[in-house]
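Record 1 of the preview.
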Amino acid sequence: MIFKTEFVTGLDDVRLGGSVKNRTIMKMFEDAAGFHSDTINDGVNDLDTKKNAWILMAWKVEVIKRPRYGQRLTVATWSREMKSAHAFRDYEMTDENGNVLVLASSKWTLISTENRRIMKIPEDIKEGYGQHDRCVFGQWVPERPELSESYDSTFTYKVLRRDTDLIGHMHNLNYLDLACEVLPEEVYMAPEPDNIVILYRTEIKIGDTVECKYCCEDNIHKVDIVSGRGTHAVIKMW
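->
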């Protein structure tokens, strides 16, 4: 099943000049996935009865042509491959004329909300979503997060209640917010990167103090998010 939904960009969705933020694009993709889940009774309203939830393991996003303020956008999303406890989901954003603006792929894992352990994906969920063989980036599979050996700057942050989501850990898009805080001023103020890869490793919980460590490797802006509990995420932007 290919699911489609529409969005219109507003004031909080854009930077100065009217270009849509990367975070906004990814939130639209996230919301589209959630609305898709609702159609097969696997969404937010079903958490209490099904006792399971999807957690994000990786993102890959490519902006081909950046959306603008006030545009009516269509997001198409579909489930790709499901194996054991892991699933892949892809996305395509188009404008009013059907022009492709953004492509994305993501990897997810199903967990129990009672013990937070990884679950095997039930057959009825696989059947509900269907499995399409189209991947917008070929057969993309995320690599294992690897830390850099040295860094140019570091930003320390204590996680607040506002950072957490409905299953009690830091919301996945807030990792991108943290990465942006440690960017050099000239990088932050420049047009946003058109390519993003986020590799999640260990969940961040309320009260955690994390370090966001920045470096630039081969013209890729890289941020490693770590704490005393280990590696939480690696984010690459270019």
